[in-house]
Amino acid sequence: MVPYGLRTSRANFQIMMDTVLARFREANLMMKSSKRSFDYESVTALGYEVRKEGVKSSRTVASREALGASLMQGEKKLREMHLIVKALGKLSDLEKKYSATERECLGVLWALKYIIFGE
């Protein structure tokens, strides 16, 4: 069982992003316009390349034992990335049975809850 079904995933993602941005506003956090990017032709995340033509797998990196996440800041092109926070967590026996895609999605949700919401 995955936390969100395919029919509601867009709406759930929008709700989650609205919540994240609301917390940014509450904490008076600002995003520098030069560091924001929109209108990409493609985006690569979690071993998948997402384009308007569809999704293509480039590699699968989901662990069968644990979850990990890190929040970095800096200039990737200049190789000046600095670790802000990192998190590690162990999968439950049930979560170990998830498919690689389900474990990757679980990792994203877990990272957002842990790093952004502090849960």
What does this molecule look like?
By secondary structure, the chain is α+β, with helices and mostly antiparallel strands. It has one domain (33-116). Helices cover 29% and strands 28% of the residues. It has a 3-stranded antiparallel beta sheet, with no helix packed on it. The longest helix is centred in the N-terminal third of the chain and has 18 residues, at 9-26. Residues 60-114 form the Reverse transcriptase RNase H-like domain. Pfam families: RT_RNaseH.
Provide a brief overview of the structure.
Helix content is 29%, strand content 28%.
Give the topology, please.
Layout: H1 9-26, E1 42-45, E2 48-51, E3 54-57, E4 66-75, E5 80-90, H2 100-116
Antiparallel strand pairs: 1-2, 2-3, 4-5
Number of strands: 5
Low-confidence stretches: none
Structural class, please? alpha+beta
Largest sheet: 3 strands, antiparallel
Compute the number of structural domains.
1
| Helix and strand element order | HEEEEEH
Beta-strand proportion:
25-35%
Tell me the distance between the termini: 22 Å
The shape, in one word, is globular
Mean pLDDT, to the nearest integer, reads 76
Q: Which strand order does the major sheet show?
A: 1-2-3
Helix content: 25-40%
- How large is the radius of gyration? 16 Å
Report the total helices: 2
Keywords: Endonuclease, Hydrolase, Nuclease, Nucleotidyltransferase, RNA-directed DNA polymerase, Transferase
GO biological process, one term: DNA biosynthetic process
Protein name: Reverse transcriptase RNase H-like domain-containing protein
Organism: Eumeta variegata (Bagworm moth)
